[in-house]
Each structure stands twice: as C-alpha cells, then as structure tokens.
Amino acid sequence: MLKKGILNARLAEALAGLRHKDRFVVSDCGLPVQQGIEVIDLAVVFGVPRFEQVLDALKSQLVLENAVIAQEARDGLPEKWIRERFDIPVSYIPHNGAAGFKDSLRDARFVIRTGETTSFANVIFQCGVPF
C-alpha cells in the first residue's frame, strides 16, 4: 500500500510511462476529447476534484518543460493556477479551430479529466527531464 503520492492506479501508471517531450492534458469536466485518446477520469461530481488539486498532486511527481493553454484562458484563473505551481513557459493558442487547443489534443498521450467547472481550465503539459 502506497503511503504517499498518486493513489489512482491508472493515473500512476500513465505518469510513470511518460518520457521527455511527451504531452498530456489536465482538463475541466467538459473538454471534448477525440476518440482514441485515453481519458483518465477523476471527476466525481461538478467541482470534485478541482483543477488546482490535480495540479498540486502532479507538481511533485513530474518534470515539465512547458505548458499550452487556450488564449481564452489568458490572465484568467486557469493560467494563474498553472503559473503559481509551475515555473515553466506558458504559450497560448485559440481554443477552437485548426491548430487550436482542442485540435492539439490528438498529440497527447492521455487526458486527466477533473471535476473543474471553471471555463477553459485546460492545459497541455510537455514533459522534461530531471538531468
């Protein structure tokens, strides 16, 4: 029995499989995800778990080198939550359209779905290396 860290078995397995340059997503509860992309669904009810709580759990587990969020989230709570926790560059792309955020999900290894209901609380993280 683990005494700390990620307890969700599927999430722990997915995180352990990430390598340098791999991308994954942390999403609100409403982000549409294309078929064929694994969704690790942590949502229980609206607001549980919060986007912030999942970011907190991931912070000590991973080395990240950058983040991508929707332009619509710029200067909003989702960007604030990411910047408070991770000292990495954040770039912006439109939420919709060709080469937009939703379209960029196809390159993700998986999506972690939270219960978050704050609009545009979605981020694509790219993994780094600890050396």
Automatic annotation (TrEMBL):
Keyword check for Cytoplasm: yes
Catalytic activity: beta-D-ribopyranose = beta-D-ribofuranose
InterPro entries membership: D-ribose_pyranase, RbsD-like_sf, RbsD_FucU
EC number(s) per entry: 5.4.99.62
Class in the EC hierarchy, top level: isomerase
GO biological process: D-ribose catabolic process
GO molecular function: D-ribose pyranase activity; intramolecular lyase activity; monosaccharide binding
Domain of life: Bacteria
Alphabetically ordered keywords of this record: Carbohydrate metabolism, Cytoplasm, Isomerase
GO cellular component, one term: cytosol
Entry-linked PANTHER family: D-RIBOSE PYRANASE
Protein name: D-ribose pyranase
Taxonomic lineage of the native organism: Bacteria, Bacillati, Actinomycetota, Actinomycetes, Bifidobacteriales
